[in-house]
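We now fix the convention by which a protein and its fold are recorded. Think of the row as the fold of the chain written in a discrete alphabet. Here is one such record, which you should read through line by line.
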Amino acid sequence: MESQKKTGQSVNKTSTSEKDEEEECCANTSCEKNENQKPSSPKQGDFSDPVYKEIAVENGTINRMNKDELRAKCAELKLDTRGVKDVLRKRLKSYYKKQKLMHSAAANGSTDTYFDYICVVDFEATCEENNPPDYLHEIIEFPMVLIDMHTLEIVDSFQQYVKPVVNPQLSEFCVKLTGITQKMVDEAETFHQVLKRAVSWLQEKELGTKYKYTFLTDGSWDMGKFLHTQCKLSCIRYPQFARKWINIRKSYGNFYKVPRTQTKLICMLENLGMQYDGRPHCGLDDSRNIARIAIYMLKDGCQLRVNECLHSGEPRSVPISAPIEGAPAPQTPQKRD
């Protein structure tokens, strides 16, 4: 989906009623920074405990290691030895930190896993080789991949193609890029029908009721642009459960301390010592590969948390001080008046 994301354009300005609705929701879900908000993690409090000095000493030792030494130490500890130097260094630091906190009162009884599941989404949308400024991207593939946060495995997936309405004829460029043929979208259901199926699939998994979950995307475009645009085109209220998500590019860059240029899908995979599995720009395959990156980050000690939300029709950052909370239970999509 990366090529389409680069050329994605904003749609018409959000209507007043829609904007009010989004601002109210965003305020209720802590997208605006609250200076009086207490840190959500008990590990963000007192760092005077001696265990943090021990962690700092270990970090200093790791920082002085070359790549061969880092790889050898990972092998000794039975950790994954794949990845570039920065990834190996972060993997070792996270391992030692976790081990020391587990044996220290500084851990304060907290758990590393808040969510039971993470749902990865990577839409495919209509596109032209050179999209005009007013081009409206319509979702033509709706994939989801479910990660079990307790086993760190992909446990299920969902995929439906979608019939475009504004631009029903796919461009030759779009067909070559995504592998989605004209026949596939002609025989597909409309977005409203597909969204109903997606909601039913999420409900069958008891997400938001029995289990805590959230969404994860490769960038801001899937929820902030494509889903927002599609809901307006289909006269559907933007689903409450999709108003907040994890942008894995931000999480990856912050965790491994790499520049934005190193957070593209292929770069993230290669830096972790992996190769793309499947067909690039197939939404389901993209989602599976994004899930593989998320799983490796989790194994390396990253605590994935919501870092973006939809506010006034645009994606906004969620401050680190915001409380951790799961997405609400999915509801049947409602038509907009």
Remarks:
- The domain at 50-104 is CATH 1.10.720.30 (Transcription Termination Factor Rho, Rna-binding Domain; Chain A, Domain 1).
- The mean pLDDT is 86.
